[in-house]
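Bench notes, afternoon.
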Amino acid sequence: MAQWRLRVTASDGELEAHTDVRVNLKDANDNAPYFPTLTTHATVSENIPLGSSVARVSATDHDDPQEGDNAKVTYSLEKNAIDETSGSPIFAIDSHSGLITTALCCLDREKTQRYAVQVVATDGGGLKGTGTVVVDVQDVNDVPPRFSRPEWTLDVSESLTPDQVLATLTVVDQDVTNDFAFRVVPGSGRGWQMFRVDGREGGLAGGDLVAVEPLDYEDPDHRRGFHFRVQVTDLGEDGWSQRNHVSETRVRLNLVDENDNDPVFSRDLTHLSLPEDTPRGALLATFTALDPDGGGEGSVWYSIAEESDPRRQFRVDEGGAVRLVGGLDRETAAAHTVLVWAVDKGTPPRTATATLTMNVTDVNDNPPYLAEPQEVQVTENSEPQVVARVKLGDPDDWRQGHGPPFTIALDPKAPPHIAGSVRVTLDKRGDDGRGVGVVWTTTALDREERRALLVPLVVADAGWPSLSATVTLTVHVADLNDNPMSPAAKTVTVHTLQRQGAAVPLGRVYVRDPDDWDAASKTYTWRRPQSGFYLDPATGRLTMAASTPDGSYDLEFLVSDSSQGQEDIQASVTVHVQSLTRSEVVTATPLTIAADTNTVVREEPHGGPSILTRLMAAVRAWVGKGGGSVRPVSIQPLHSHTSTATATDTAPATRIWISSVGVTNFDHILLYHKQELSEAIGVAISDVGRVACEEGSEEKSRAAVRGAARCVGGCWVALSDMFSVVDANTSAVVGPGVVVGSGCSCLAAAPHHDTQCTQNTCLNGGRCIPTASGTKCICPHGTWGSRCKVLVRHFDGGGGGDSSGGGWAWVPPIPPCAEVHISLEVLTGSWEATLLYSGASGGATPQGPISDQLLLQLRQGRPHLLLDLGGGPVTLALNASYSLADNTWHRIDLIWKDELVELVVDLCSGGSTEAPPTTSPQPAHNHTSTPTQSPAHTCRGAARLPKAARVLNTGGVLQVGGLTRPSAAHAPTPDDAPHLRGCVRNLRVNGQLVDLGEGVLSRASSPGCPAADCLTAGIHCGLHARCEGSPGSLRCECEPGWAGPGCDTATTPTTFLPNSYIKLALSFTPLAYTTSITLRFRTWRRRGELVVLSSQHGRDSWSVQLVRGRLCAVLQFHTQPQSLLCLARATLTDGRWHHLQATRYGSSMVLAVDDGDGDLYNATVQTEGPGLLQVDKQEGVHVAGSPDFLDITAFKIRNDYLDGCMDDLRISGRSVPLPPMVNSTAWGQASAFKGVERGCNAPSACTNVSCEPPFSCVDTWRSYHCGCGEGSVLSDSRAACEDEDECAWQPCLSGGTCFNTQPGYVCACPAGFSGQHCHLPDVGETSLKLPLGVLVTIVVWCTFLILLVCAFLLHQHHRRAALRKSLADVKGGTVDCKGQGSPPPNHTPNLLELQIQKPPRANGQPAWVKNINIADVDVLQVDGSSLPCSLEERGDGCVVITASPSRRKRSVQSVNGKKRRPSVVSQDDLRNYRYEGEGSSPGSLSSCLESCSGSGKFLGGFREVAQMVES
């Protein structure tokens, strides 16, 4: 309120008076002007003239406008926009009205789209208020468009359909109000009328080139290519007249041939009629096909559809000629329909089919056979009688007379006992006139003499010429109880698991009795009962308690036969019990022999050893030292077709399961010596280490999977609840039952997680330690991974034509899988070498007419593959652009699946996949690497497999480095397969690393590779580094988590909080074709991006991330679908540290974690696709997620990797920083990061957690569990936790001594070994680790000094006399060591001899055992005119250096009557000297040199030598 009006009243009690008072409030300037709207938005068009109005602003001031100038507001621009060209302000404001206008002509939106100016309002009193005016510049279409390229060269596939985008012709136009229109200039070139350009949706700057007619490379006009001009305008279809708004580009389009045409046969149907005796090799027909692709010059190859030729009777050659390779048989197939395929060499290949039909006519090529009966029975001692009326059959065509009437007669060559007891007659009218043979007995038969008669019958048909054969009728003689029994003894060998359960069967009590059908008339009783054994009185069957201890038991029985009137006949049984473990049974090796089970265990008639005994003796002899653990655990009879060997219906066979505890690769040893074992036992051995899955049912398979089982040759093998009993009267063998089921032929091997330590848990001398989470292996030096595998092996080559002289090694066979991926690395200088072989050699028996095989070789230094999966051989030969025989590591990948086999070298990287990273960062700063990708046709070969060929089923081992003992006619000979001289490493079969260690059966081969060993090359990598590279380029690379020149500095991890990320800028350019990412990570989270490498604008990217708890590598090219490679069965989000290594070769990827074995490894080999990824060095590397900015400051992390840690990140082998601990390295720097912390710490997870006693909370990094903690176990009483004696595990290798601590243990290592478990060999050291050049310099100088000393010694007797005289002259003088001395004597010597005094012996040993004496005498040259103190001026601080004739003692003399003191000997010098200064001794040679200052100096360069020795 600016004014008040008051009335004042005065009163004396009776009268009043009034007056009015007016109060005017004078205004003070106490309110500053302000803008009601702090930000004012205005929009103007670009190109407006000078002085154009932009906006008007108005400020408010609450002061009194009538009071002076308090409310008078003026306007000004405090922060104006400045034109960069002229430096002039862009806007102006009227100080009174607040109108903002343009101060320059023609705003340009393409230069600046928005301006922000600050306006100030000032009142008359000087108070100010500010506001902001934001000016948006509207676009005017004033910039002409232009194509981003003056000419476009396009390679377009002919398979693209009309209206499909062939390419996008990008346009550059900074305007935003464009109305783009495109056209192909009529008549501008060949084929212009076949194309058009469409504007992109949304008005984007670019046009899509499409074809309006189909493109066909096979059209000659199209094959020549197209060229034409394309124009663009930004003014719409009406803008073509505005030439300044029209741009033009030229397009050159070349068609790329696609495999879009099937081959065409000149004739696709042929019919033939052939007799079944057509000779093999006969030409049946020729089918010729051409491929229209490639201009009609495409080549084709021919094959026969497997389903049309199941017996593989036909074969087609490269020219389409179909020949007969297997015999025809009308009785098997009277007609054939053969499908001949013509397959082109495109990708994917296309196929055409021709048909060959054949009728097979009959030839009388089959004799009659015995139709019925085949076996008959006659009772012994019976009268002569007719025992059979035999009918015959014949598979030939009877309509052509190739059958009945038949003739039948007894074979004239029948044995005498047959001819004398059997007669055969022919009944021509029998069987409807076909003829029947009548078989008679002519005398009574005796079963005890012969249990059966095999009657040979000669039969013939009525064909021309007639065919005859000999068939056998079996006459069984039925038993009568006509013989008494007599006492007998029996031996039973029992292998038991010592488990609770059903009683163990032992067979029957045996008494000698020629009759064998009289069991019902016998009764059995104990003579002396034995605890733990049970007898069935009616059957004589004997059983034993399952818990019977090991040992021998003698049992006696009495047997009675009521029909013979015999009673209490004695029978004794000796039982030998041996216990087994479950692992012994499950890991036993199967061996199949061609004999029935009774024959195997029965002793020879004259007391000789049984086949089983001879077999075990021979096996133990071949095994050697470990033979004591070899024993049979189970014996099983095999019926017809249960063996993998070819069997007839009457061929008996027995499978023996042999245990071999502690013998590595026992099955390989048996297979290698199979022939010798067969000769030793006199029976053929058909299979070793193989079983047939057909005998296992699905129920058996499920039982196998539930229990302890292993996969043998594609079949589950497990224990059963039954027992195997082989009873051969006088002897019997009892063992646990082993069941064989199907279903594991190609199951990926499960992770090796033993709950208990077994003989196979740790390999190559590794020590197994049980832990709470399973088992752990302590591995010796030179082994790898969780099971101590050896991954590299050396082969000596040689052999020539003698297979036994060359190097080779056997490893487990390739699994019978439809999809197989084998990879290996080879280092050799041999141009001809065998790398891998699996087939009919080394003891494997070929099954069927054609045997599967795999042979991978080097021929002329290039890979060559022969693969036969049963459908015929397929050959691949790579014409690589470089030789693999260059003593450099090269990788070879062999893959077959989906009827396609591929062979890839070095993942098409153009050279060894082990290219070392650049050691110096300098060349990388200004260097742009070019890709080294090889052409696909030189690094990859592919071939189609026959449709029925899916599984490699050789049954033999995989031979590495060479062949041994070929045993089949079609197996390669040693001349065709020379042995490898070189090394093989990282052999993988379906992701599993193959152990190449000491347990491998081999010859002229050993673990390791001396040519690629750093120690052999004189390079010591240290404790935390490993040797990498090839000969000539060996290097040490730090293990994960270690850095520094000696790899002795632990790296510092980084913790990532929520919404965190790191952006890196690289100082080098990663190769576009090959990139690698290695790091360590630790997390519980199931999702998040670890590292992503991307090109500019993120069009192409390669990343490593966690996807639903699985680690995946994701490759994305903008022209291809996303490619994903994951470790599907590895659990890595467990809070533990894991080491990740991901490598990309073009479109191929390799992903490995930790030891990279089994489930921790996966790879995809893809040679098609773009392959090149140009990483954006400045913006294309993100760690732990990628930020998506919402505005200037706000952002959201995509694929956030939170609550996790990372460490030791390397890109392409180069260490890059992980802030905040390290913000830059020589290879990159952190350009931006947020939400990261140093270290990998986490808050305690045990806060407020209580555990039931005696357990306590154990923190496991962001998680916890209740337990006893590290180094403690639950006591036997389960009432307390006590210290665990880890030394009971014997964790110290190499003879180290274990000392138990709380918690843990300590290993005291013997001489020559070091490391936590004494697993590292010490490297020999010298006392002086000097370079060779320095050592040579020292020797030269020492020689020079010795020569000088010898010269001085010749004159010593003259010099000593002068020295003694000088000392006598100055004996009574004084010395002022501060420089005030008398003149020097007349006879001051210029040479003083320094004697070397050896320190005293320590413990009877020389004290200089680690020092090297350079010379025996050192000479100091002194300028007599400049001695630091003269001999006449000796004082407290001066020393007299005397020459002692004895050269053994030396002393310091004090000249002022002070006590003499002996010198203090320095223990770190090569020599000991005496110096002035309180009797102190120098600590090094350098201190000696410093004390001998002034003009004194060492002759002959001794100062330099001493300094080098000290350093």
